[in-house]
């Protein structure tokens, strides 16, 4: 089964929509670095850290070489948080794509040839795999569009909403 490394923005966004259980129903495994799990996943609304583990979240530790890579990433791109650098190092070390809405992380991932996906890709995949119906997908996209704190680009949300309304 393919593994995807998630940053906190993706997990928080789907927790806000009460969709983490559905996200974990996709035909993927999800992983996070242990630093992210312990330091950033504090408020997940209706979900807890044990819920994530119960859904199958993999919490991965970086070895000394992975930590050195993460530190080098952060030195190279100071805008990356240490947690973000750990997630990128984990993804890069194993050749796993990273899930993120953070543009800095995506640009850096591109520079390191680390594949990346975003929240809209997750919604699209939920629709393709039948985890969400079209009406549920539309409701999720509209909620994201109406949330001023949602990091997903508004124009891309509007395009997806228009396609599902047709």
- Order of strands, main sheet, comes to 3-2-1-4-5
Indicate the structural class: alpha/beta
Oligomer: single chain
CATH superfamily of the largest domain: 5'-nuclease
Describe this structure in words.
The chain has 166 residues and is of the alpha/beta class. The protein has two domains: 3-119, 5'-nuclease (Rossmann fold); 130-165. The protein is 58% helix and 10% strand. Strands 3-2-1-4-5 form a five-stranded parallel sheet. Helix 8 packs antiparallel against helix 9. The radius of gyration is 16 Å and the shape is globular. The protein starts with a strand and ends with a helix. The model has no long low-confidence stretch (mean pLDDT 94).
Walk me through the topology:
Layout: E1 3-6, H1 8-16, H2 20-23, E2 29-33, H3 34-39, H4 49-55, E3 58-60, H5 64-76, H6 82-94, E4 98-99, H7 103-111, E5 116-117, H8 119-128, H9 134-146, H10 154-165
Parallel strand pairs: 1-2, 1-4, 2-3, 4-5
Short characterization:
The protein is 58% helix and 10% strand.
Which key terms come to mind for this protein?
about 170 residues; five-stranded parallel sheet; 10 helices; alpha/beta
């Amino acid at each position: 089964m393919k593994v995807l490394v998630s940053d906190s923005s993706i997990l928080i966004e789907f927790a806000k929509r009460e969709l983490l259980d559905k996200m974990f129903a996709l035909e993927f495994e999800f992983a996070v670095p242990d630093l992210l799990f312990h330091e950033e996943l504090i408020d997940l609304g209706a979900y807890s850290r044990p819920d994530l583990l119960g859904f199958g979240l993999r919490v991965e530790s970086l070895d000394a070489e992975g930590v050195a890579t993460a530190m080098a990433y952060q030195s190279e791109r100071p805008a990356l948080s240490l947690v973000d650098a750990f997630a990128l190092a984990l993804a890069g070390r194993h050749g796993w794509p990273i899930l993120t809405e953070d543009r800095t992380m995506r640009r850096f991932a591109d520079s390191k040839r680390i594949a990346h996906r975003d929240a809209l890709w997750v919604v699209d995949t939920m629709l393709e795999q039948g985890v969400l119906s079209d009406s549920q997908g539309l409701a999720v996209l509209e909620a994201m569009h109406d949330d001023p704190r949602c990091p997903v680009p508004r124009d891309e949300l509007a395009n997806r909403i228009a396609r599902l309304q047709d």
